[in-house]
Automatic annotation (TrEMBL):
Its cofactor is Mg(2+). Keywords: Magnesium, Metal-binding, Transferase. Belongs to the FPP/GGPP synthase family. Gene3D superfamilies: Farnesyl Diphosphate Synthase. GO terms for biological process: isoprenoid biosynthetic process. PROSITE patterns: POLYPRENYL_SYNTHASE_1, POLYPRENYL_SYNTHASE_2. It comes from the Bacteria. Pfam families: polyprenyl_synt. This is Heptaprenyl diphosphate synthase component II.
Length: 317
């Protein structure tokens, strides 16, 4: 994804090195699994946004930016490990999930350990208490989004408004934090900081909607995780919500046993009745982000942001 942007690609390789250097455990088996998760399929999208937005301020400190970008990816990885425990997912990025290998208790502790690494890196890079506070409240927002997800299943139901509130915390908050931290660390103007925050939010919303679409449209081999996983875990996501709106009989079908054949049939129904509306929603968020990006100071960073944002709309994994 990043080879078209050599300078950014080199910076992201440095971010990977920072991640590897800061994940050190006496339990080598778990450390090896964490390392595999960081290098097998991690797109480093959130670190990339931090690095790009860091170019908009006068205070350039590449080593500090690399550490802060690494912190964003480590926080993301911690939430993924906890997500997999909650969803009982067998695969993540083509790698057997940690709880499948080592049990849920060890996976939870591994995720918690990554939270401590994240805060150590933030402590090293934050310019002031306000930067640290921003990370703390953003992490709280992420965790509240995860807890919101646990309130709903096929029995209790979920609305589109509920879903948008959930992903506003679960996914958009970290994109928002990554973009805003880049501008803050580089001393960019308040106008650019606020614009970065809005761009990060809208990209994060589009990213999660697309991620949920892929669960219904891509093969297991492409996704590197089971197809229809949201159905198996009784999770409402936006394609399913739109499908239920457009085909109300689907509610009854969701109460039936999730055999492989039934899951395949439900996936077909969601593809037919829900995916198009979900794609339209992702497109609207993407267009909002692109409109804000167009207002940034012109230059390489703004152009790369535009290209990346457009590419995320057509991604296949």
């Amino acid at each position: 994804m990043w080879t078209a942007f050599p300078g950014l690609h080199d910076q992201l390789m440095q971010v990977e090195q920072v991640i590897q250097a800061n994940i050190k455990l006496r339990n080598k088996a778990i450390q090896n699994t964490l390392e595999a998760l960081t290098i097998n399929g991690g797109k480093l999208v959130r670190p990339a946004f931090l690095l790009l937005f860091a170019t908009f301020g006068p205070q350039q400190d590449p080593p500090k930016f690399s550490k802060s970008a690494a912190a964003m990816e480590i926080l993301h990885l911690a939430t993924l490990i906890h997500d997999d425990v909650i969803d009982d997912s067998p695969l993540r990025r083509g790698v057997t999930t940690m709880h499948t290998h080592y049990g849920k208790r060890n996976a939870i502790y591994a995720g918690d350990y990554l939270f401590t690494v994240y805060f150590e890196l933030i402590n090293e890079t934050a310019r002031n208490a306000q930067d640290t506070h921003l990370n703390a409240i953003s992490m709280r927002q992420i965790l509240l989004g995860e807890l919101d997800q646990m309130r709903f299943d096929f029995k209790t139901g979920m609305s589109v408004k509920d879903y948008l509130r959930e992903i506003d915390g679960k996914t958009a908050a970290l994109f928002q934090l990554s973009c805003e931290m880049g501008t803050r660390l580089s001393g960019a103007s308040l106008t650019i900081q606020r614009r970065a925050r809005r761009i990060g939010h809208d990209i994060g919303m589009a990213f999660q909607v697309l991620d949920d679409i892929l669960d219904y449209t891509q093969s297991e081999a492409t996704l590197a995780k089971p197809n229809g996983e949201d159905l198996r875990s009784e999770t409402y996501s936006i394609p399913l919500l739109f499908a239920v709106q457009n085909y109300p009989e689907l509610k009854t079908l969701l109460r039936q046993e999730m055999t492989p054949a039934h899951v395949a049939y439900l996936v077909h129904l969601v593809q037919t009745y829900g995916v198009a509306d979900a794609k339209d929603l992702a497109s609207r968020y993407t267009q909002k982000a692109l409109a804000e990006i167009a207002q940034l100071p012109s230059g390489d960073a703004a152009e790369i942001l535009k290209q990346i944002t457009q590419a995320l709309l057509i991604r296949t994994n």
